[in-house]
């Protein structure tokens, strides 16, 4: 039986994947149950043709991933209040199953404290799930659903009450770690996050380093993430662990130079308001298998 929960969907596009965008929108429209309202945000680019009933917002400049998604959220009212939950989907993804939206409705209806659902991302040709797309330390079995401490930005569903209570995505991050920032604030507000292996988004296998700004943004935003959200004693510990992990991975000299440049930038530039999480949230993260030092 269809849940009465009203769903919306936010898709960001740079206007350079029109065929993939159309396939994604068709897969959303084909979902079983009540109609999903869809907003496509052109992030500094024209959207192009979309199916009837899909709304578009074209921004004059690229606001980054969190900035674009925040515009999409507000298209559904303040903090997305016109709907009960929002799907955030990559424009080159696709929902291969028609019951994904209904599974989201059922999951939210069954668990009042469930605030965010993160989907399993699979390559459409191989069916493989990259390790980095399983948001937990024990990521060897992508078919195992579990509670987690963060989520995947382009393959998720967020209850709009989470956005109202925890705030929007941090626009100044532009790219990288904005999901973890929201996840930590949501957990601190008492919400839970589920990784669901039975909710699938097809997405071509890619490497995050394909983005020219990857190493700088990852390092800068890691510092911002800690400065904004962690109790003071954990900030140097968290960043020290990530510094060691970066060195162990032995990036190329240019990548390491960019990483250290971003790390310095993270300390030298404003990161937005500081709201350190409660120590009981630190304990919750630890019990979920990922203490906020890694």
- The rounded distance between the terminal residues' Cα atoms is 41 Å
Total of helices: 9
Main β-sheet description:
8 strands, mixed
Rg (CA only)? 18 Å
Fold and architecture overview:
The protein has 294 residues and is an alpha/beta fold. It is 37% helix and 17% strand. It has helices at 18-29, 64-74, 100-110, 160-166, 178-188, 214-229, 234-248, 253-268, 279-287; strands at 7-13, 37-42, 55-58, 85-90, 114-122, 146-148, 155-159, 192-202. Strands 3-2-1-4-7-5-8-6 form an eight-stranded mixed beta sheet, with helices on both faces. Strand 1 (7-13), helix 1 and strand 2 (37-42) form a beta-alpha-beta unit. The chain is globular, with a radius of gyration of 18 Å. It starts with 6 loop residues before the first strand and ends in a 7-residue tail after the last helix. 44% of the residues are buried. The mean pLDDT is 95.
Provide a concise account of the structure shown:
By secondary structure, this protein is an alpha/beta fold. The protein has 9 helices and 8 strands. Helix 5 (about 180-190) runs parallel beside helix 6 (about 215-230).
Give me the secondary-structure topology.
Elements: E1 7-13, H1 18-29, E2 37-42, E3 55-58, H2 64-74, E4 85-90, H3 100-110, E5 114-122, E6 146-148, E7 155-159, H4 160-166, H5 178-188, E8 192-202, H6 214-229, H7 234-248, H8 253-268, H9 279-287
Helix pairs in contact: 4-5, 5-6, 6-7, 6-8
Keywords:
alpha/beta; globular; eight-stranded mixed beta sheet; 294 residues; 8 strands; 17% strand
